[in-house]
Design a protein that fits this description.
55% of the residues lie in helices and 2% in strands. By secondary structure, the protein is mainly α. The chain has a two-stranded parallel sheet with strand order 1-2. α7 links the parallel β1 and β2.
Length: 293
């Protein structure tokens, strides 16, 4: 329990540090809103196993997390729980990264199926949400693969400058750029399996004004990877400095954070209760449909 509370607190601090305003964004702990578990259960009765098995992240995690037993419904059904999280609040748009678009598509299928099965003679309970991508919808991990905390290829909001520098030193670059003055290839070259330089990708995201010049210098062999990585580490340190400062302020005021979470839990439960009441009514599970007689 203490580990769970600690992890939840860390996530809430990250959200607040990143700039989410609790007056506009409802920040809550999912397990404190029991309606999520009930909606997940009800939706599991109409969700095909095939839908869950074809979610790309399910196959990727099976390949990447070697040595862990992933043959459980909890793992297979996690995308369904995510769908319940979205549908509970009847979102029209879901801000996600590009790799999460299949999860939103699954959510749309489940909403469509629920409405078809249970809402023939009533307005649909669920909208079909759309994925909302940013101008930079995918950011790879430092090793060039899908970013994953469990793999350890991430930079955390809590990482101090020296930790950022150490991680960036190991970031993936062009394997053919073997010396400082060797011409490099920032862009992907699929013909030999080079997915593109991660360091340049991070410059494009966090240092757009210099990214084109950095790419040109790399191609010309006038910029070495060591210097480029050192520069990127400073760019990331500067970009995350205000985030770390906000996080420290919130961490120093735990009573305020607890109040934000308690308020968010209450607001989330109010909406969840209303949604679940409609779900039960549509499925004829509410009092008055014969189950209480």
């Amino acid at each position: 329990t203490s580990s769970f509370l600690s992890n939840s607190n860390e996530v809430i601090l990250d959200y607040l540090a990143a700039g989410l305003d609790p007056a506009r964004s409802v920040l809550f702990v999912q397990s404190h809103v029991p309606q999520h578990a009930e909606l997940h259960l009800l939706l599991s009765m109409i969700t095909s196993l095939g839908w869950l098995e074809r979610v790309p992240s399910y196959k990727e995690q099976q390949e990447n997390l070697v040595g862990k037993d992933l043959t459980t419904y909890g793992f297979l059904g996690y995308p369904l729980l995510q769908a319940a999280d979205i549908l509970m609040y009847r979102a029209d748009y879901v801000p996600v990264g590009e790799d999460q678009v299949p999860h939103v598509e699954l959510t749309r299928e489940i909403a469509r199926r629920f409405n078809f099965l249970y809402c023939q003679d009533r307005p649909p309970v669920f909208p079909e949400p759309e994925a909302q991508l940013t101008d930079f919808p995918r950011l790879r991990g430092l090793d060039g693969n899908r970013m994953s905390k469990s793999v350890g290829n991430t930079i955390l909001l809590t990482d101090p400058p020296e930790q950022i520098a150490a991680k960036v030193r190991n970031a993936y670059t062009d394997p053919k750029k073997t010396h400082k003055d060797s011409p490099g290839r920032p862009e992907p070259h699929p013909e030999d399996g080079h997915p593109g330089c991660v360091v340049w990708e991070y410059h494009r995201k966090f240092n757009a004004g210099e990214a084109d010049g950095i790419a040109a210098a790399c191609r010309a062999g006038t910029l070495g990877c060591v210097a480029n990585k050192r520069h990127l580490a400073q760019v990331l340190t500067d970009a995350l400095a205000p985030v770390r400062e906000r996080r420290e302020r919130y961490a120093a005021d735990p009573a305020r954070v607890r109040d934000i979470v308690a308020t968010g839990n209450r607001r989330a439960r109010e909406v969840a209760q209303a949604t679940l009441a409609e779900v039960r009514d549509a499925m004829h599970l509410s009092p008055g449909h014969g189950w209480d007689r």
